Amino acid sequence: MAERTRETRERILAAACEVIAEVGFEKIRMRMVAEHAGVSTALLHYHFENREKLFTEAMTHSFAQTGTELERDADSVPASVVLARILHSLLPTDPELRQDWRLWQELWVRALRDEAAQHLAVDLYDQLHTWVGQAIKRGIDSGEFTDCDIDATSTLLLALCDGFGIRLMLGDPKVDLDSAQATIWGAAASVLGTGPDFPAL
């Protein structure tokens, strides 16, 4: 029973991510998510009482899915590869990550007007900062990276990913994925003393 409940929640959250990314939070209706997930509206409301709760859970779900993928065989590859994977995942590099970016953009807009959304955004950024910082610390501890200010470097790399990510989402003709990754990795390499080429993932 518990497993079935968990699977239903996962299906609803996956559907919510897709619908929110497609139409935006302001236009979303609970009925739309229920139909997309293949469940009744009553069952949807059983799990999520309102749109706000559903949005928060959907964002957290999307974030957790990315985190799970980033942890794949992380202990058996160099720290530079782990860091490159994280930076790659922070850009809209494939359809799933473009969907994640649409969710982030919805969160940013809501956070300007809603205190709960603001707290959620800050909390998720803290987690991103931790992921980047842990990869850098691992490389420093192993001797792969030069010692540096981990917090400042993590903040710099996150800011670069945000800036380039927005321009990639906008389809800015002056920016492409390869140049974005090269620039971001160049900034990392200059601080961490690693090779200038973006590592193979």
How would you sum up this structure, described in words?
- The protein has 201 residues and is mainly α.
- 74% of the residues lie in helices and 0% in strands.
- The N and C termini lie far apart (39 Å).
- This is TetR/AcrR family transcriptional regulator.
CATH class of the largest domain: Mainly Alpha
Q: Tell me the β content.
A: under 5%
Which structural class fits the helix and strand makeup? mainly alpha
- How many domains comprise the coordinates? 2
> Cα-atom Rg, whole angstroms?
18 Å
Q: What layout of secondary structure does this protein have?
A:
Blueprint: H1 2-23, H2 30-37, H3 41-47, H4 51-70, H5 79-89, H6 95-111, H7 115-142, H8 150-169, H9 177-192
Which features does this protein show?
Arc Repressor Mutant, subunit A, mainly alpha, TetR/AcrR family transcriptional regulator, Tetracycline Repressor, domain 2, 201 residues, 0% strand, single chain, 9 helices
